[in-house]
């Protein structure tokens, strides 16, 4: 059982470039989300999805785009990378309430924007 | 606006001692309060969680104490071990069905042998 898988693990981008962070889960979870982690600030929610075709903004959505065409995948797109987007990004998923409230995180994607 | 405030930022405890991390929240609509443990280079992993209708929950050496009137909750790690050295995050859920979490700032715990 792979759980939540993120790729790439590490990435360096130049300012203005675009890229997509991939996230896949094999637990048939309805709820998926993206967080960024910055020193001293904990994790902050970027975007989330409650099911295929449904997405919504979190606390810090600016500069990011998401889509959810399948239950398994929830990619995060950086439209025009900025140094302020240098961070560690975590994808997470959660099943229906009946299966428990545990939110599972991937191992993270380290992004540096120069 | 920091909806969940966590303290201390860092903590050093001797092996066998008690580690205590505190969190305070503002939004009374929160209905789920998990604690996550994160090791370097890894994603956060659920450690223990509590709902506001319970004042205390214990799982092994880990205990959550919850004070609804004060809007505070804390994590106690009894008999702390070097393997407990990690970053700990408290969190609160806005609506239990969305998987949306508001995190505290994190506490880096070091347990000295």
Structure description:
- The complex is a heterodimer of chains A (114) and B (113).
- Chain A has strands at residues 4-7, 10-13, 19-25, 31-38, 42-51, 54-57, 64-66, 76-78, 87-94, 103-105, 109-113.
- Chain A is mainly beta and 114 residues long.
- The model of chain A has no long low-confidence stretch (mean pLDDT 92).
- The model of chain B has no long low-confidence stretch (mean pLDDT 93).
- Chain B is built from no helices and eleven strands.
- Chain B is 0% helix and 54% strand.
- In chain B, the strands form two sheets. In chain B, strands 2, 4, 5, 9, 10 and 11 form a six-stranded mixed sheet that branches. Chain B has a five-stranded antiparallel sheet with strand order 1-3-8-7-6, with no helix packed on it.
- The interface between A and B is medium-sized, with 28 and 26 residues.
Counting DSSP H or I runs of 4 or more residues, the number of helices of chain A is 0
Distance between the termini of chain A: 36 Å
Q: Classify the helix fraction of chain A into a percent range.
A: under 10%
**Overall number of strands of chain B:** 11
Find the structural class of chain B using helix and strand composition.
Answer: mainly beta
Order of helices and strands of chain A: EEEEEEEEEEE
Radius of gyration of chain A: 13 Å
Q: What percent of residues of chain B adopt helix (DSSP H or I)?
A: under 10%
What is the SS-derived class of chain A?
Answer: mainly beta
Spatial shape of chain A: globular
How much of the sequence lies in strands of chain A comes to over 45%
Classify the oligomer. heterodimer
SS elements, strand count of chain A: 11
**Largest binding interface between chains:** A-B, 28 and 26 residues
State Rg of chain B: 13 Å
Question: How would a crystallographer describe the biggest sheet of chain A?
Answer: 7 strands, mixed
């Amino acid at each position: 059982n792979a759980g939540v898988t993120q790729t790439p693990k590490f990435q360096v981008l130049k300012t203005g470039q675009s890229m997509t962070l991939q996230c896949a889960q094999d637990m048939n979870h309805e709820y998926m989300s993206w967080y960024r982690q910055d020193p001293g600030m904990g994790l902050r929610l970027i975007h989330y999805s409650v099911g295929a075709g449904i997405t919504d903004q979190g606390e810090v959505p600016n500069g990011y785009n998401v889509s959810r065409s399948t239950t398994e995948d929830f990619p995060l797109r950086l439209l025009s990378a900025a140094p302020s987007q240098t961070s560690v990004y975590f994808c997470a998923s959660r099943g229906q309430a009946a299966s428990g409230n545990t939110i599972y995180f991937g191992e993270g994607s380290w992004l540096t924007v120069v | 606006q920091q909806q969940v405030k966590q303290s201390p930022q860092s903590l050093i405890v001797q092996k066998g001692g008690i580690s205590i991390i505190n969190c305070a929240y503002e939004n009374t609509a929160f209905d789920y309060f998990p604690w996550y443990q994160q090791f370097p280079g890894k994603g956060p992993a659920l450690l223990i969680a509590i709902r506001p209708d319970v004042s205390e929950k214990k799982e092994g050496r880990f205990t959550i104490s919850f004070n609804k009137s004060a809007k505070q909750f804390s994590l106690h790690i009894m008999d702390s071990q070097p393997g407990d050295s990690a970053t700990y995050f408290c969190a609160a859920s806005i609506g239990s069905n969305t998987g949306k979490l508001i995190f505290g700032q994190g506490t880096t715990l070091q347990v000295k042998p």
